[in-house]
């Protein structure tokens, strides 16, 4: 079977990024940041705006990895509900952590407004449509916990979900009005422009190949240059490689794959997500979907581990589209693309201090548009002198996952297991 031609909708439709090149000199800066995605560029922007000069290095181009490839769903919060976070971290840090994650989507839309980033930012909410009555009951608990904390989170009836999504597949759901969507590549390119405008430097095709301590500072070497700085921020998430091996072993990466239809007819656009919310359903292997500015339906779900997926591998996505929207049978698919998601053992993002002056933020478990942007600000606040105890986010030691070498096998087995759970639930639902 021939390989599917991979092209991302976002790279076909985003405004061009700034003209950038590789680092070819030895430079000094206050902070050097490895990774030009949301984490690295948000950290750079917040540091630069506070008067610290930064240099950002990326092995690829800005947004060539997850920050330019994702679903663009701006989702407040993390996987755990607020009461669970408070139980995990206690009433003091737990409550401040809830405040931090609750505001994550606000930060995205504030940054967009403040820096005039043109990225089709749409803030009409994030819907979780329920695939079963059990899932619906769990959503009701979630909604109630957030409402107790003053968040605009409401339950939706079967009919309301049907009207908002255009799908009759779900038995009800939740809407979190803090959420929304962005054109993800346009957002990350806009962040890069904002960093440059604030006076920072961004170098592409400049992989950090060595990190060495030198006379009380840190030096990062690239193939043709180097940056010496008091502070290093590692912002490489699922694409973390061998620069700091222990960090790579704190995450397991799993593939996520998306497809986009051709622009829908005006009639279908009135029916399907007419208010343009983001949606992620409650299957264990969830499907996330939205529309873009031209009215295409964009859907993602678990991906294939194959580097060059064939049609069989992406038929899973087509089936998901047609299961949710039978009315889209026969509408051609125009774009196919995927990327890697970083999963942590506790399903929380992590902020680490690996050594004095070396920080890292990663592990967004598929919810990095809002959380990575927030993590960048947290990293900047820490570099600017905020005590770890006042950050509103736990600073944790690096704890590599045991038997990490086998984690790829574990990720495959976990995906099979979750698929089996969803299969049983589908059978029970008839
Ligand atoms: C297909 C897909 C769909 C997703 N959908 C959503 C969604 O809808 N909503 C949501 O909230 N989240 C989503 N996510 C997750 C989200 O995209 C990520 O959590 C987020 O982009 C992480 O940002 P980052 O800056 O930490 O990492 P990245 O954007 O991956 O950036 C890391 C950068 O580090 C660079 N790098 C790595 N090693 C080096 C080195 N040695 N030297 C220099 N540079 C290096 C890489 O080139 C890369 O550019 C999705 C992810 C994927 C893959």
Question: In terms of topology, how is this protein built?
Answer:
Elements: H1 9-13, E1 26-34, H2 38-49, E2 54-57, H3 66-69, E3 73-74, H4 82-89, H5 91-102, H6 104-114, E4 126-129, H7 133-148, E5 153-156, H8 158-165, E6 173-176, E7 180-181, H9 184-197, E8 201-203, E9 210-214, E10 217-221, E11 226-234, H10 245-248, E12 252-261, H11 266-271, E13 278-280, E14 288-291, E15 297-302, H12 311-324, E16 333-343, E17 350-355, E18 358-362, H13 368-383, E19 395-396, H14 407-428
Parallel strand pairs: 1-2, 1-11, 2-8, 4-13, 11-18, 17-19
Antiparallel strand pairs: 3-7, 4-6, 5-6, 9-10, 10-11, 12-15, 12-16, 13-14, 14-15, 17-18
Helix pairs in contact: 2-9, 2-13, 4-5, 6-13
Bound molecules: flavin-adenine dinucleotide.
Can you put this structure into words, describing what you see?
The protein has 430 residues and is α/β, with parallel strands linked by helices. It contains 14 helices and 19 strands. The strands form three sheets. Strands 1, 2, 8, 9, 10, 11, 17, 18 and 19 form a nine-stranded mixed beta sheet that branches. An eight-stranded mixed beta sheet has the order 5-6-4-13-14-15-12-16. A two-stranded antiparallel ribbon has the order 3-7. A hairpin with a 7-residue loop joins strand 13 and strand 14. Helix 6 (104-114) packs across helix 13 (368-383). The longest helix is centred in the C-terminal third of the chain and has 22 residues, at 407-428. It is globular, with a radius of gyration of 21 Å. The mean pLDDT is 94. It binds flavin-adenine dinucleotide (FAD). Flavin-adenine dinucleotide is lined by residues 34-40, 57-60, 64-67, 69-73, 75, 207-208, 235-239, 241, 243, 256, 258, 288, 300, 338-341, 362, 364, 366-370, 372.
